[in-house]
From TrEMBL:
CDD domains: ENDO3c (cd00056)
Family, similarity comment: Belongs to the Nth/MutY family.
Main EC class the enzyme belongs to: lyase
Cofactor(s) annotated in UniProt: [4Fe-4S] cluster
Domain HhH-GPD: 45-197
Cofactor info, note text: Binds 1 [4Fe-4S] cluster.
E.C. number(s) listed in UniProt: 4.2.99.18
SUPFAM superfamilies reported for this sequence: DNA-glycosylase
Taxonomic placement: Bacteria, Bacillati, Actinomycetota, Actinomycetes, Bifidobacteriales
Function of the molecule: DNA repair enzyme that has both DNA N-glycosylase activity and AP-lyase activity. The DNA N-glycosylase activity releases various damaged pyrimidines from DNA by cleaving the N-glycosidic bond, leaving an AP (apurinic/apyrimidinic) site. The AP-lyase activity cleaves the phosphodiester bond 3' to the AP site by a beta-elimination, leaving a 3'-terminal unsaturated sugar and a product with a terminal 5'-phosphate.
Organism for this UniProt entry: Pseudoscardovia suis
Record's protein name: Endonuclease III
Length: 221
């Protein structure tokens, strides 16, 4: 592929995103939630496991502990029992309780709706904050997870695509600079869908990928 300047790359990114929009017309958060508190806790629990696994445990968790006040006063062993199947359950149970206590102390039990306030909470990083902002509050957010890192790298959507361990904050700022803020959350969902469905970590299915016509990495695996 000839060397591509920034203008051409940005144009290709928009073309490829249009294809992703056709391929995944209904981008939604895969975690089940009914309010910002549930999404915040569910996202925290989703580290190192799948959203499907989290969705199996959260109905019991939120029926016993429906808000920050209830979870802040929970018995840690009871929370561990409920989330046991997720792995790292000791750490996650304590983190969920600590997070709820912080929400109670600093925000009267409500989940804040700004990046700075969210990332000031214990155990909440930019990825979790962006998930909550974009999906619970409708505030533009671009969560960068392992699928987003892999797919944007293979597509050369970012200039550091050769870097083995790129900085998620840099990825977020570089990709967000090219797209309208109104698209950020759905763009992240669609990249995640594509990573799960086709552009797998091992054995990407380039032969049936709708982006294969322009993807610089098509067929090189
Ligand atoms: S062509 Fe292959 S490497 Fe490129 S996005 Fe599609 S599956 Fe991934």
């Amino acid at each position: 592929m000839p060397r591509e300047n920034a203008k051409a790359r940005h144009a290709r990114m928009h073309e490829e995103y249009a294809i992703l929009c056709e391929t995944y017309p209904h981008p939604v958060c895969a975690l089940n939630f009914t309010n910002p508190f549930e999404l915040l806790v569910a996202t925290m629990l989703s580290a190192q496991t799948t959203d499907k696994q989290v969705n199996k445990v959260t109905p019991e968790l939120f029926s016993r502990y429906p808000d920050a006040r209830a979870l802040a006063g929970a018995n840690v062993q009871d929370v561990e029992r409920i989330i046991h199947s997720l792995g790292f359950f000791h750490t996650k149970a304590q983190r969920a309780i600590d997070l709820s206590r912080a929400l109670l102390e600093t925000h009267d039990g409500e989940v804040p709706s700004t990046m700075d306030e969210l990332t000031a909470l214990p155990g909440v990083g930019r990825k979790t904050a962006n998930v909550v902002l974009g999906n619970a509050f409708g505030v533009p957010g671009f969560p960068v997870d392992t699928h987003v890192i892999r797919v944007t790298g293979r597509l050369h959507w970012r200039t550091d695509w050769r870097t083995p361990h790129p900085d998620p904050v840099h990825i977020e700022s570089e990709i967000c600079a090219v797209f309208d803020p109104a698209d950020w959350t759905d763009l992240s969902h669609r990249l995640i869908f594509h990573g799960r469905d086709t552009c797998h970590a091992r054995g990407p299915e380039c032969g049936r990928c709708p982006l294969a016509g322009t993807c610089p990495s098509a067929g090189i695996f």
